[in-house]
Write a structure and sequence with these properties.
91 residues; mainly alpha; 4 helices
Length: 91
Amino acid sequence: MGNLRLDVESLRTFRAVVDCGSVTQAASQLNLTQSAVSWKMKRLEERLGSPLLVRDGRELSLTELGIELLIHAEQIVGAHDDAADSLCLLH
């Protein structure tokens, strides 16, 4: 997994799905379609080679990999947003 590339928007989408508890609500929050969010999640899971979420009816829970990724996603998305905010202030 040394060459694994994780883009910020996929991590942002993953974080939103976890925070919202559903793909539909995450899509609304991100101003994306439900199918776009589902596609990003599927692509992320394919890249990692393992599921991130366990769906039990309407409930979503994180797999062990999902818990680990969420920790990194929070840091990466937060650092990205801080950098973008900082750079915007310089213009």
